[in-house]
Structures are given as C-alpha cells and as structure tokens.
Design goal:
The structure holds 2 protein chains of 2 kinds. By secondary structure, chain A is mainly beta. Chain A contains 1 helix and 17 strands. Chain A folds into 2 domains: 105 residues, Sandwich (Immunoglobulin-like), CATH 2.60.40.10; 94 residues, Immunoglobulin-like, CATH 2.60.40.10. Chain B folds into 2 domains: 33 residues; 101 residues, Oxidized Rhodanese, domain 1 (3-Layer(aba) Sandwich), CATH 3.40.250.10. The chains are: A mainly beta, B alpha/beta.
C-alpha cells in the first residue's frame, strides 16, 4: 500500500502550470517609409494544464499599442489566441526593439508570465556624420565638415543650409549628386564659446526626414570628463 | 507506519515546504521592488543612489506626465510622434553641455523609451556620460526632488 502515498506525494508536488507559448516570440520587421503605423500579431497557445486569464499586456511605451485580439482574455488548456501590436512610427528611426510583457491572473507586477519582442527597422535615408562639430575655445577657426549620405531609391538634394548663429559660415560640397554631400562649416571666430544649430534642408518626399540638424560647439569644456 | 499515517506525514511535509517557500519568496520579492543592485545593472544603467554631481535629468515620459510631476530641473525628451524631435535635440544641447552627466528616466523599468533617448544623446557625441535610471520613475517617485 506504499504506492498510494507515493503517487499522492508526486501529484501534490507537481506544479499546476500556466504557460503561454508563442509561435514567434521575436518578430523582426522592416517598416516602409510611407507608413505611419504598422501592425504585427503574436499567436499564442495556452500550453499549460489550467485555464488562464490574461490580465495585462504592456509595451511600456505610448508608441506601441497592445491588445488581445477579439477582447478574449480567458483561454483553456490547448486554446490559442492572438496578441496584436500596433506601433506608431512617429520619430523613430533605425533599429528599434520593444519588449512586450504579458501578465496572467495571479502574476506579480514585477514578474509577468511571458515576454515577446518586437524588433523593427525604419530606414534612415539621410545620415549625418558627425552629429556635432567641435572647436576648442581660442583654438584655430578651421573648417570642419559634416558628411551627408543619402540611402534612398530617389536622389535627395540639399536645398539649403542655415545656422542659428552668424558665427558659422557654411558651404555645400557635392560629392555625388543626390547621394553624397559634405557641408563645410567654418567659425568666424573661436574667441568666445558658443553653440550653433546647423539645419540642413533637403528635397526628399519623406517629410519626417526632410530637415536634418547637427551642431557646432565652441567650448573649452568639451574634453571627455574623467 | 500505516497508509493513513504516511498520508498525513506527507501532507504535513508538503504544507511545511510550501509555507517555507512562500515565506522566503515574499520578502525577497518585496525587497527587489525598491532595491537597485549595482551588480545586476545593464552597462548603460545607473542606480538612483549613485547619481551624484551636476546631473541633467531627462524625462522620457509623455508631456502630460512630465508636466504633472517630474524631477526638479528635468527636461522633456520623448519619442512621441506628436512632438518635434529636432526641437527636443536642439533644446537639450545647452543643458547637456552644462552638465557632467545625463540621466534619463521613463515611466518604469519595463519602459524602453529612455534607452531610445539615451542613444540619441550619445549620438550627439558631447563627451558626457549618458545613463538610464534603473527603475525609471518608479524608482524616484517618492524622492523629495520631484516637483
């Protein structure tokens, strides 16, 4: 008769599992430039041994809406559902990664049951390098250049360069028409410290990236801090 | 020992084990909620207790949250599509130059916006250390500098 307590003991210590299993826990997506939003679905199955209730799904960002498709929150073992994410592209550029956390009933706030990841790539069609030009206060007022490279199906031309201060003179140099430029910036004086915003306007039809900006800084305090 | 006694003994042992587990887990989790362990930080993170000196606080939450309650002296810089990204950058520049360190926080530990903003500040290449506050606003909401 010792077999009975052994079975009961094993049953007692077996955890009742509640588990969300996602078909694709990491979604890697490329976003087109003309999109303002994009939607991706995460399909899941309750692979545990008890019915679950989804109480919260959150990406921690106002830019990314998360909802359980159909407003269905309770899933029996083996039942499947979908979590839908809607991303507002807004000011994002380049590669962005957002974790999405899912809480089931009974989860502590700091310990959600599941996590999926949305990774997306938004094309950067105009790249500036460097973002900040630096001169030392009282140092030589030499010309420095910003490298402007375009990566787009259409040619993109620089239409104007303006600065927020008269202390910077600028000149556009074409390296390859519509593809590659240099913006040369020369301070008239470095005697006084100062900061200037350099705005580079282009003719691209991608409005969000049409105006680029970089900075010119004349300062004695720009050396890296210890 | 008969079967019944064995069952009772097993049941008691199971209950004791479960109770012990619960008692150990409960205070540990409560402690974790408000504790920042420097050993467990990601490379770009900092604990609130370690933020010292002339620091520029950057609030990466929504404008409404920032206006309602934010760190004293903080500036707003988020990824909201309704905001002007170039303006954030331009307005932040003199503040960054005047600071020794930039610390960015968003709503909570699970919020990733502060890391996005930190990337943008680093790309400005101004030689200032740029850190993300571990725990975000959750870590500082009870501290006195909030206004």
């Amino acid at each position: 008769m010792k077999i009975l307590p052994t079975i009961l003991f094993v049953l007692a210590i077996l955890p009742v599992q509640a588990e969300l299993k996602f078909e694709t826990p990491i979604i890697d997506a490329h976003v087109s430039l003309d999109s303002s939003t994009f939607v991706r679905d995460y399909k899941f199955t309750n692979s545990g041994t008890k019915t679950i209730k989804i109480t919260q799904a959150d990406a921690g960002c106002s830019c990314l809406g998360v909802e359980v498709a159909g407003g269905k929150f309770i899933y029996a073992p083996g039942e499947s559902g979908t979590i839908r994410t809607t991303f507002e592209i807004g000011n994002f550029q380049g590669t962005v990664e957002k974790p999405i956390l899912i809480w089931l009933e009974g989860d502590r706030e700091e310990a959600p049951s599941a996590k999926v990841t949305l990774r997306f790539h938004i094309p950067v069609i105009i790249a500036l390098e460097p973002k900040t030009l630096k001169w030392e206060k009282g140092g030589p007022a030499e010309m420095k250049a910003i490298d402007v490279k375009m990566a787009y199906e259409k040619l993109i031309r620089i239409t104007s360069v303006t600065t927020s201060t008269e202390n910077f003179a600028t000149k556009i140099v074409t390296v390859e028409e519509g593809k590659h430029y240099k913006v040369e910036v020369t301070p008239l004086s470095t005697e006084d410290g100062g900061l200037g915003i350099i705005r580079i306007e282009t003719d691209t039809d991608v409005e969000k990236q049409r105006i680029q900006q970089c900075f010119g800084v004349i300062s004695a305090a720009l050396k890296p801090l210890p | 020992m008969n079967t019944f006694t064995q069952l009772v003994a097993i049941g008691m042992i199971s209950l004791m084990a479960a109770g012990g587990s619960w008692l150990l887990r409960e205070p540990l989790l409560n402690k974790l909620t408000f504790t920042c362990d420097p050993a467990k930080l990601r490379d770009d993170e900092i604990c609130l207790a370690d933020v010292k000196g002339n620091v520029l606080w950057v609030d990466a939450r929504s404008r409404s949250e920032w206006e309602k309650n934010s760190f004293k002296g903080s500036i707003l810089w988020n990824m909201d599509p309704k905001e002007d990204a170039n303006l954030f950058e331009a307005e932040a520049m003199p503040h960054i130059l005047a600071a020794e360190m930039v610390v960015i926080y968003c709503g909570s530990e699970k919020c990733g916006t502060s890391r996005e903003v930190a990337g943008r500040v680093r790309r400005m290449d101004l030689g200032r250390p740029v850190k993300v506050l571990h725990g975000g606003w959750d870590a500082i909401k009870d501290s006195s500098p909030a206004s």
